[in-house]
Design a protein that fits this description.
2 domains; Endonuclease Iii, domain 2; globular; mainly alpha
Length: 211
């Protein structure tokens, strides 16, 4: 599959029931964005857990621990719960979550920035365990729509489609922004935001529409 064929697949999906699924998911993100620091902190913890791990196991941990669990559990308790949920690197992730507690007012912090790009830079520089992918994931999940989430599924699909040629196991800032620009071009061609495009690409690769 090349870029043209990928665009055709996305356009077909836009005319299918998947369009409604994607729109409903994006609406959930917008609604979460209208909520407070508690919900935003929960989402930040979720995105810390997705780094190098499964979104499904991160979702399970988020549901079982909740705000109080993430905010007050000891490291040993966190490690145990994260391990039970199937999260990888549970010891390090527990440390990152404990470190992130100083940003429990994360919505207030994010609202200080004029746009999601500056907010993303702050997240990458200040929140341990958060890189550009995780920061973009967090921002998308709380209602921002103009950043790309370059996870392994999306990168794999982009390689298969010839949109990128190199193997991107680790992304520098320059390369991340480079690939993001390529996705922005595709998003414009298919009439989607980057937030919507990510959900379509995830569906093409996995058959699922997850957050």
């Amino acid at each position: 599959m090349n870029e043209k064929e990928l665009i055709e697949v996305i356009m077909k999906l836009k005319s299918s029931y998947i369009n409604n699924v994607v729109k409903a998911r994006v609406q959930e993100f917008k609604e979460l964005g209208c909520r407070g620091n508690i919900e935003w902190f929960l989402e930040l913890c979720f995105c810390i857990l997705t780094a190098g791990s499964s979104a499904i196991s991160a979702l399970k941990a988020q549901k079982e621990l909740g705000f109080n669990g993430f905010l007050t559990s000891t490291k040993d308790e966190l490690v145990k719960r994260l391990k039970e949920a199937g999260c990888r690197f549970f010891d390090r992730r527990a440390e990152f979550i404990i470190e992130a507690r100083k940003f429990k007012n994360i919505k207030d912090i994010m609202k200080r920035f004029p746009n999601e790009y500056e907010a993303r830079e702050w997240l990458v520089k200040n929140v341990k365990g958060i890189g550009y992918k995780e920061a973009s994931h967090f921002l998308r999940n709380v209602g921002f729509s103009n950043v790309a989430i370059l996870d392994r599924h999306v990168l794999s699909l982009l390689r298969e489609s010839g949109i990128i040629e190199y193997n991107l196991k680790t992304l520098t800032k320059r390369r991340y922004l480079e690939v993001e620009r390529k996705l922005r071009d595709i998003a414009e061609k298919v009439g989607l935001s980057l937030a919507e495009l990510d959900l379509y690409l995830w569906y093409v690769k996995t058959g699922k529409v997850l957050k």
